[in-house]
Amino acid sequence: MKINNPYSLKGKTILITGASSGIGQSIAILCASQGAKLLLIGRDRDRLEKTKDLCENKSMHEFLSVDLLSFEENKVRVYSFLTDHAPIYGLVHAAGISPTIPFKILKEKQLLEAFNLNVFSVIYLIQAISKVSIRSSEGMSIVLISSVMSEVGEKGKSLYSMTKSSLVALSKSLALEYANKGIRLNAISPSVVDTPLSMNSHYRKDENSLNDVLKQHPLGLGMPSDIANAAVFLLSDASRWVTGTNLIVDGGYLAR
Ligand SMILES: NC(=O)c1ccc[n+]([C@@H]2O[C@H](COP(=O)([O-])OP(=O)(O)OC[C@H]3O[C@@H](n4cnc5c(N)ncnc54)[C@H](OP(=O)(O)O)[C@@H]3O)[C@@H](O)[C@H]2O)c1
Which of 44, 49, 130, 205 lies at a C-alpha separation of 20 to 30 Å from 17? Predict the structure, then answer.
C-alpha cells in the first residue's frame, strides 16, 4: 500500500519573511527540500540570493527585497509580488527584531519599530494573502514565529514580549475567524536558537551570563533547523487538524 508523505509541500507556494538569515533561511531550505515553491522576503538582496542558492530547485523560487518597516510605501511592490505568484498556500513570518530596553527609558520610536516589524507587517500580509484571488483554493497555513518571551518575562524584554505575545493572540482569534475558509494559523515559540540575532544578545558578551542561559536549557541551545522542522509540520497536511496553537520549541526552557 502506498502511503502519502503528510509532510510533503509539493505543489504548495509558501511566502517566508526573514528568509535572508537564521530561522527564516533554515525554514526556506527545509520547505524547498519538501517540494515547495518559495517566495522569499528580506531586506538584503545578496543574502536572499544566497538563501535561494541553498534551496533545492533553486530556479523555481523568487525573492523580494523590501523593508517591512515601510509597508505602506512598498505596498504596490508587495501586492504585485503576491499576485504574480498566486495562489499562495503558506505564510511564515520570521522577520523580527529582539530589542532589550529597560522599560523606564522605552521611547515611542522603539515601540513603533518593534510593533511595525514584528506584528503590523504580518497583519498587512495576512490581509493581502487571505483575499480569494491570492490564496490557494486548498486552504492556507500561516505560521507566526513568536518566542518563549510570549509566555514568560525577562528584565529588559517588555517590548519584545509584548510583540511576541501579540502574535500568539492574533493567531488564536484568526484561527477562529478563518477556520471556515480553510485557513489555519499557528505560532511557534522558540527559546534561544543559534542565529545572528541571538549571537548579538547581551548574554553572549559575558561568559557568566551565557552559562546562566545554558543552564536554563536542559537540552542545550537550539539550531535553526529545530524550528524549521516545527514549521514544516505546521505548514504541511500533517497538521491539518491543528489551528490556534502555540508550539513551544525550547529545549526544555519552559519546563521548569
Ligand atoms: N534566534 C533566537 O534565539 C530566537 C528565539 C525566539 C524567537 N526568535 C524569532 O525568530 C525570528 C527570526 O529570528 P532570527 O534569530 O532568525 O534572526 P536573524 O537571523 O536576525 O534574522 C532576522 C530576519 O528578519 C529580517 N528583517 C529584519 N528587519 C527587517 C525589515 N525591516 N524588513 C524586512 N525584513 C527584516 C532580516 O532580513 P535582512 O537581514 O535582510 O534585513 C532577517 O532575514 C524573529 O522573529 C525572532 O524574534 C528568535
Answer: 205
| Residue tagged 507556494 (cell numbers) | 13
Q: Domain range holding 204?
A: 13-247
| CATH number reported for the structural domain that contains residue 239 in this entry | 3.40.50.720
β partners of residue 142:
91, 185
195 lines ligand 1 (CB under 6 A): yes
Position 254 in a domain: no
* pLDDT tens-place values along the chain, 256 residues long: 777 899 999 999 999 999 999 999 999 999 999 999 999 999 999 999 999 999 999 999 999 999 999 999 999 999 999 999 999 999 999 999 999 999 999 999 999 999 999 999 999 999 999 998 999 999 999 999 999 999 999 999 999 999 999 999 999 999 999 999 999 999 999 999 999 899 888 888 889 999 999 999 999 999 999 999 999 999 999 999 999 999 999 999 999 8
Annotated active-site residue in 160, 178, 203, 253:
160
Q: Does residue 227 lie in a domain region?
A: yes
